[in-house]
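Re: that chain you flagged

S.,

Sorry for the slow reply, it's been a week of failed gels. I finally had a moment to sit down with the sequence you sent. For the record, here it is as I used it:
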Amino acid sequence: MSDAPSPARPLAGRIALVTGASRGIGHAAAIALAQAGAHVVAVARTQGGLEALDDQIRNVSGESATLVPLDITDGDALDALGLAIHQRFGHIDVLVHAAATLGPMTPVSHIEPSHWERVMAVNLTATYRLIRTTERLLRAADAARAIFFTTGRVARPKAFWGPYGASKSGMEAIVRTWADELEQTSVRAVLLDPGVMRTKMRAEAMPGEDPLTLPEPSEIGPLIVELAQLDLGLPKQPVLFTDWRAAGRVVSAAG
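Prediction finished late last night. Pasting the structure tokens below so you have them in one place:
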């Protein structure tokens, strides 16, 4: 296939790094970006999940992905990933950070320290380490876009969601700080709130909920592809998938 962008393949020739790519929203992002022509560097913990993703990407794009099995909390592995991408591709055009964990649904006073540390490692520290690893690669592209997933639990804390909400609040602060630091560059970051979706994490949080009443993660794919191309402002407010879906258009990332 040609590497020249076209209406059907607007991201042809672009390099997209996607974390949490083996399932849920990360999986949907990887498929949508590949279908739009991007070469996907897919990161997830499970080799089997990545291989299944690669089969699907081949079906929609005719090309294979670059598969990277690693734990997002392994900072040394993330550093090595950055070096490997630099050596092979020289840059990243699109970063989609979808890897996350829910953690225990329990009162704050009952949280085990090891559970707290795991949630913070996955949702907060890994975000900083990923930014540290990829910034130079993003700067090397002509107009790189970085998409991070947030949650309504940041603005609306709720009982039993303590570790998840706190870690995502910290993640938002890191991303907004970083975006402000990049204001004079061509790199732009955006916070995207997917709302409730038919994911494993949602099922863990709300086991009594009928998943058939929730949108499929694949529905957010076109929005991710659009955000990867937009002239984004600084992320004053998250982009809301529910607003985009209701209006049938992209909501400004500048808020």
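What I noticed first: DSSP finds eight helices and seven strands in the chain.

Talk soon,
D.
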